[in-house]
Amino acid sequence: VAHKQKLSYLRSLDEWRELHLHFNTIKNTRIDSLYRDDKEREARYTQRLGALTINYANNCFNEETLYLLRRLAQRLEIEKSIQNLFSCEKVNHTEQRAALHSALRSPELFSGHYYTNSMQHEIEQCYQRMSAIVKRVRAGDFWGHTGKPIQAIVNIGIGGSDLGPKFVVDALAPYVQDNLHFDFVSNLDPWQITTALKNLDKERTVFIICSKTFTTLETLTNAKVAFEWLGGREVIERQCIAVTANIEEAKRFGIASENILPMWDWVGGRFSLWSAIGLSIAMAIGMEGFSELLCGASEVDVHVYRSPLEDNIPLTLALLDIWHANFWNYPTRAIIPYTEHLRYFIDYCQQLIMESNGKSVDRDGAFVDYATSPIIWGGIGSNSQHAFHQLLMQGTHIVPIDFVIFGQCAVRDKQHQHQLLQAQLKAQSDALLKGNNQADINNSKLVVGDNPHNIILQDSLNAKNIGNLIALWEYRTILSALIWRINPFDQFGVELGKNNFKQHYSWY
Ligand code: F6P
User: Model confidence over 146-169: pLDDT tens digits?
Assistant: First the structure.
């Protein structure tokens, strides 16, 4: 008899088997029928977190489901794992590192740890240096080599050294200082930096070279193009800033020491916009605005740190994500923000989620025999209705969706148009939930409905609320990893491509 592969630890648990048995009792239940049986459903499954109103009622689960999911989480000692996130445990066990991005915005949760006490001094020093640079740029006191005030800031970086700052600076455009222009260069394709430099003034442009390792080919190649464009060494020393954990390499590269801001190995790239990697954000919205962003994330830190399991909203969302991925076997998840302000949020979440949870080995080093991260995709609504909603309505794939929308419009005199946008989202949600299940309709026009989706409402657009949103998604991702028993903080899978390149590169 073929030797049955030993079940993974997770699937060997009674709590996991109980969930499968429960799934078989609920899998033929329509979501809209759950409302008929429970008038309080929407109210019960709509909760506030900071400035977010999170409605997760439009998914196929009941109180028994939540009870069993939370029992699984308890069996996996999730509370202890959450406390470990706020200690100096090496939760990134494969690289033997802590993951302390939360310490950048919620130092009070880490006080008393000898390790973080010494870190606090480094963090404060770094923010003071950031603040001094930011104040000079915003006051027109950061001069180029000919004594003219800087007006253009170009962030050169990729992945976590690009996506977070780019998303936040773009999202908070109404708050960006008028006379400052921001650009984000990331791709190796020379077209991007060439077009970016075309409209810039050498005497008024500063480059922020963001690279935790300072070895990323795309970033160093683009930085060299920027250096050539700027001209001589003294210009580079004056108009180039580096943010890196590899200070010596940045110096060798030609960056003046006083313009090198530190990063630390206990801040992962995709969790780093709260560090000096967020320098372009602070330049755009000011140090006060940057502090508001941190404050919004800190609200979620405190919520996760303090909430009992059943009140922990990011955990509830993570458990429903697992319910969809591992029991309904939905291979993808869509993020559809009904707002232009979040147009780069999808790209940001793709790295956050798929680079964190695109793993197949558990913390014991065994291959998993269950699905981990779903494929994250999406698009901006209402445009998405004219692009891929047909598949969502009548396709052969069921896709759990996260809709995100603002309560208030950022354009003062266009509230009515914003109300149309809100009504569009409501109409789509109703169609996805109820379909048009008229008995007399021919099949080609039938919309079955019963499509799972969350609706996240942000009160209004500001730095604090964006901090809430990002931290919610960070914890949803990390807590999912804790249940899947995988490490969300390493990314060995991307090393191979880089090493392969070196062979090809040395060839030509
Ligand atoms: O994608 C791989 C990766 O290492 C990401 O984790 C990181 O954000 C990105 O490349 C850039 O790395 P660095 O900041 O070291 O240039």
Answer: 999 999 999 999 999 999 999 999
User: Per the residue annotation, which of 292, 355, 464, 474 is the catalytic one?
Assistant: 355
Task: Give the distance (Å) from ligand 1 centre to CA of residue 351.
Answer: 10
Q: Which residues pair with 242 in a beta bridge?
A: 209, 260
Give yes or no: 6 in active site.
Answer: no
3-class secondary structure, 49: strand
Identify the residue whose tokens are 């109103």. 53
Spacing, Cα 211 to ligand 1 middle (Å): 7
Q: What string of DSSP letters covers 96-157? A: TB---GGGGT-GGGTTT-HHHHHHHHHHHHHHHHHHHHHHHHHHT--B-TTSPBP-EEEEE-
Known active-site residue 93: no
**Distance in angstroms (rounded) separating the CA atoms of residues 476 and 456:** 14
Residue 193's pLDDT band, with cuts at 50, 70 and 90, is: very high
Predicted pLDDT at 440: 77
Ligand 1 atom 16: the closest Cα is on which residue?
211
- Classified as helix, coil or strand, 413 is helix
Which pLDDT does position 506 carry in this prediction?
66
Q: Model pTM?
A: 0.97
The rounded distance, in Å, linking the Cα atoms of 454 and 470 is 16
Residue 160 CA to ligand 1 centre (angstroms) = 6
